[in-house]
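Example 3.2
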Amino acid sequence: MKILLVADIESQYLWDYFQVDRFKDIDLIISCGDVKAEFLSYLVSMIPVPLYYVPGNHNKRYVNNPPDGCENIDGKLVIFKGIRIMGLGGSRRYNDGPFQYTEKEMENRILKLKFQLWRKKGFDILVSHSPAFGVGDGEDICHTGFKCFLNLLDKYSPKYFFHGHEHLNYGLKLRERDYSNTHIVNGYGYFIIEY
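Structure, written as tokens:
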């Protein structure tokens, strides 16, 4: 199964120079946040597959104008073709904007999913906007990752963890890395991965 990841910027290649034949084998689109709702709506009109998204810290407009034809999986555990996908959008709280959380608030969001995690025996993919603490995150308050994401990875060992928030042009950032049994991918711009 091929998954198209998008995050943080509206890729000019996808938006201005889209070539349908290059994306005909995509099965699912996942947005890791901070892209315009119009961009996501455009993608599902060009690539007729489901699109799951979580909001980023700059997606204030999603509150009143969510992307058309897309499914918000923030704070949910969904199943697509037998693959369990958990969504946790937002970033660390650094001002009073929406989709910003303290470590404790993010822990509480995860706690609300405890029954679903038990019932579905864990998850295969974690989709977030922010990375995990110390694993591809930044040093400022806004870009510091969540420690509770490490707890999720340690406890459930999902196959993948997709996130955004850390722009690859912020310095020497790796797009892909491994943490224990989990392959972590920064979806900045766009990236295609084979599940």
